[in-house]
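Subject: for your reference before the review

Hello V.,

The reviewers asked for a structural picture of the protein, and I figured it would be easier to keep everything in one thread rather than splitting it across files. Below is the amino acid sequence we used in the manuscript, unchanged from the supplementary table.
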Amino acid sequence: MHADCENINPYGDSDNRGKSQQVEAMFDNIAPAYDFMNRAMTMGIDRLWRRKAISLIAPDRPQRILDVATGTADLALELHRRLRPARGITGVDLSEGMIEVGRRKIAAAGASHAIELRVADCLALPFADGEMDCVTAAFGVRNFADLSAGYREMARVTRKGGRLCVIELSTPRGRLTAPLYRFYTRCIIPAVGRLVSRDSRAYSYLPESIAAVPQGADMCRLIEQSGWTNARALPLTFGVCTIYTATK
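And here is what came back from the structure prediction:
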């Protein structure tokens, strides 16, 4: 099952690089501005979304956690603060620029002993089968060049009975919220992104990729077709964000 978001590239079809290479370059470009833009775009609500996601996996008490598409390590740091897994947290991301920002934040938080960040391809994870108790991803799966392959790879490295928790932006369907959301994501965010980041295209790619990623039942179906069971979707904040959970 292919997802439409796989065909949305940050720099378009005129760029000869594949999606993974374009995504890597884009996040390298916007890494210095990424955290500011995250807070500004969501008005800080992204912190609440992460905390809610962690509350869903906390009862399982995972001891070895992999955070895929970890970016600047916001979720990895929150996982450490709230769960303190005995065997630690590893975060992986394509972008060296994002990883470097994340490492500085982890060092400043005094968490370098508990969180390791690596540059790695989320479609070819450098871990053994069944090595993880839980795999998480925040705002990253829509950037995968092959979404099904990404979920299969996350399932491969998760032990039987382990958990998946994905936070992803989604499109509200309400009669009032949908047009407001479209205006905000297609007009306001790209304009602010051009002012703040070094990449004029990155924050136009954002709403395009959100609109194209599978959502709700469609995402749950794709997750289950990729080696997971009992996939569930939890919409938050009028449908602007959705948390997906599943079991290996």
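For the response letter, the relevant points are probably these. The chain has a mean pLDDT of 92. The two ends are 19 Å apart (CA to CA).

Happy to draft the paragraph if you're swamped.

O.
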